[in-house]
Specification:
single chain, 81 residues, alpha+beta, two-stranded parallel ribbon, 2 helices, globular
């Protein structure tokens, strides 16, 4: 299990631009998995929290760059404030 990956860089600074923030979250997820001996291909389920649900198309575009297995892992998107 991996949890709590967000768009913060190695210095814990929040990445400002939306796409870059999503990319950073996936890079963080990738790093944690690799440190544990896994890969992004090992993911079976993803739950994401979004402050603006209009960002879902952008999130899906970035997600598909990182999670390119077939079938894709299950995914639940939650709107949050």
């Amino acid at each position: 299990y991996v949890s709590g990956q967000i768009g913060r860089d190695a210095n814990m600074k929040l990445v400002a631009e939306r796409e870059a923030q999503i990319v950073q979250a996936f890079e963080n997820l990738k790093a944690v998995l690799e440190a544990a001996g896994g890969t992004l291909a090992d993911i079976v389920d993803v739950t994401t929290f979004h402050t603006d649900m209009r960002d879902l198309p952008l999130f899906m575009e970035v997600r598909d760059r990182y999670l390119n297995t077939h079938p894709l892992p299950a995914w639940t998107a939650v709107g949050a404030h």
